[in-house]
C-alpha cells in the first residue's frame, strides 16, 4: 500500500467508527430483515456487511438529511434484488398493478404472519421485500414504493400476491441452525487447526495458512498474507488471558469452527465462529465472526449455550498493524 493511502487509513477508521455508532441502533432490525430476505445466516450477514459498506461509501454523496433506518433498508433491499437478478435462474417478477384486490381476506393476513418462515420458499425476491417491509416492519404502501422506486399500487398488488402465496404454501419443518460434529471436508487440516488453537500456538496456526492467506475479522479488519496475520491478529490472540477452545460443527449448512471461552467448560460462552476456506492442504482464507452479535446469538441458542457479547466494532485507537 502506498504511503498516501496509508495516511488516509486512520482518519477513515475514525469516520467508520462514528458511522457504525450512528447506525448501531438499527443493526438488529436490519439483520433480522436480511435474514428473512435471504433465509440464510451467511447470506444475511453478507447482505448486512454489504449494506453497511455501501452506506458508508455513499456518505460523501449525501447532500440532504436522511432517515438512517429507512436509508439502510433501502440499500439492503436494492442490494438483495440486484444479487437475485445477477444469479442465473433467480425468479424475479416486476412490480405492477395488475390483479390488484384491495379487500384481502382476513384469513390471508393471519396465515401470512404464521408463514413468515416459509416466505423464502413461497415468494419471489421482490415479493419477499414488499411483504417484509409491509407486514413485519409496518411500512405503508407509499413508503415501500419510495424505497423501491415504484408506485403504491404496484406495492399493494405485490403484497396481495405474497399473502395469497403464503396462505397456500405448505408448512415446513425448521431444521436446526447449528450443531456440533466432527470435521467433514479437509479433516486433516481442520484437526491440526483445532489442535494448534487449543494449544494456543500462534506459530502452529500460522504454519497452516497459505503464504497469501486472507484473514477477515468480519465487519472490522482484513489481513493479507500469512506473515501479516502472524504479526497482528495471531499475536494478539496468543496473549488473550481467557481460556478458549474450539469444536468443529455446522452452522446453517456450512462447516465451521465454534470457538468457546470461559474459566471452565461448564460456564462457557460462544465466543466466535470461524469459517475456513481450505485448498491444497492449507488454509486459503479464514473468516472470524466476532463483531456479529446476531449471528453469534442465533448459533449459541441452537447450541444451547450463552453468546459472548463483543459489540459491533473494535477500538482501533492507538493500534498500529504492520503490513
TrEMBL record:
RNA polymerase sigma-70 region domain location: 23-87
Signal sequence residues: none
Classification via Pfam families: Sigma70_r2 (PF04542), Sigma70_r4_2 (PF08281)
Domain RNA polymerase sigma factor 70 region 4 type as annotated: residue spans: 113-166
Gene Ontology molecular functions: DNA binding; sigma factor activity
Keywords: Sigma factor, Transcription, Transcription regulation
InterPro entries (UniProt xref): NTF2-like_dom_sf, RNA_pol_sigma-70-like, RNA_pol_sigma-70_dom, RNA_pol_sigma70_r2, RNA_pol_sigma70_r4_t2, RNA_pol_sigma_r2, RNA_pol_sigma_r3/r4-like, WH-like_DNA-bd_sf
GO BP terms, alphabetized: DNA-templated transcription initiation
Summary of subunit composition and partner proteins: Interacts transiently with the RNA polymerase catalytic core formed by RpoA, RpoB, RpoC and RpoZ (2 alpha, 1 beta, 1 beta' and 1 omega subunit) to form the RNA polymerase holoenzyme that can initiate transcription.
Family: Belongs to the sigma-70 factor family. ECF subfamily.
Name by which UniProt lists this protein: RNA polymerase sigma-70 factor (ECF subfamily)
Organism: Rehaibacterium terrae
